[in-house]
Amino acid sequence: AVYDMGGGTFDITILEIQDGVFHVRATNGSTFLGGEDFNNCIVDWLLDEFKRESGVDLGSDKLAMQRLREAAEQAKKELSFTLESNIHLPFIISNPSGSQHLKKVITRDLLEKLTGSLVDSSFPFISQALDDSRLEPGEIDEVILVGGQTRMPLIKEKIKDYFKKEPLSNPNPEEMVAMGAAVQAGVISGDLSSLIVLLDVTPLSLGIETENGIFTRIIEKNTTIPVKETKQFTTVEHNQRRVRVHVLQGENELAKDNTSLAVFNLVGIEEAPVGVPQIDVTFEIDADGIVKVSAMDVATKRQHSVEVKPSSGLQKHEIDQIMSQQTEMKEQEDDSNDEK
Hints:
This protein is an alpha+beta fold. The protein contains 8 helices and 15 strands.
C-alpha cells in the first residue's frame, strides 16, 4: 500500500509487485486533503489565540496572514522531530496605538488534537481501496509513506495501528515522487522497459447510454489496463437503421449523471424486427489510457469507432466529486427505502 499525502492531495494505492511487474489493484483518495489543511489548523489556532489575548482579528491583514502561514508550516515541520515549537512573529501588526507581537508555544500534543480528525479522514479512502482490491489490512505486506506530511508521527502511529505493521519511510518520503518520475522517464526512454512493467487501472467505469437513459458499464472501475471488453446490444425499434452510441464515464446508474466522453452513430443497419440485429460495442484501453470505442453490426460488418482520452476531459478533483455524488445518492436512496 502506498499512502501518499502531499501538500494538497491524498492518494492511497494498492499495488501488487512481482518479478518487476507493478500491478495497481486499486486507487482512491481526495483532492481536498493534504498538508495545507494541517497548516490551516495551526493558523486558525494562532488567529483565535491572538484575538483572545489582544482583541485584534488578523484575518483581514494579508501580510500578517502570510507570515502566519509560513510560521505555521515551519512549526508543523519542527513538531515531526521535537515535542514543542516556538512561534515568534515580532511586529505582527502596527496601528496608531503601537505595535504588537505574536509569541506562542505549540506542542506536538496540541497539534495532534487540532489535526487528528484530518488524519482520521484518510482512512475511509484506504478502506475503500482495500475493498476494491478484495483485501484485508492484514494481507498488506508493506506500507510505503510518500509526501512530506507523512513525516508526522501521528500519521505513522495511525497507519501502524490500522495495518498492524510499521510503515516504511525510507527512502525520503519527500523525494519518492521525483524518484518515481525518474523511473517512469527511464521506462519511456526504453532504458528500463525490460526491467519494470506498470499495470495501471482505470479510476472510473466506462460504458454507454442504453434504453431509458440507463448507464450500462462495459469496463468496471479499477480494471487493469490495457484491457478490451465487448458487449452485445440490439435495436429498440422495428426496422431501425441507425444506432446512437453515447460513451460515458462514471459510477451513477443514470447516464445523465455521468461524464460524457463522445457520441457517434452507427448507420446502415439492415432492417429487421426489434431485437433481431446484433450490435457489438467494444471498449479498448491501451497502456497510455487511450480509449477506443467501436460499434459493429454483426450482420453487415458495418463499423464505426472513436478514440478518446478520459483524463483529458476529467481532472482528479472531478473524479472525487463523481464518487462523492454517487455516495450521496446511495445514502438518499437508503433513507427513502427506510421511510417506506
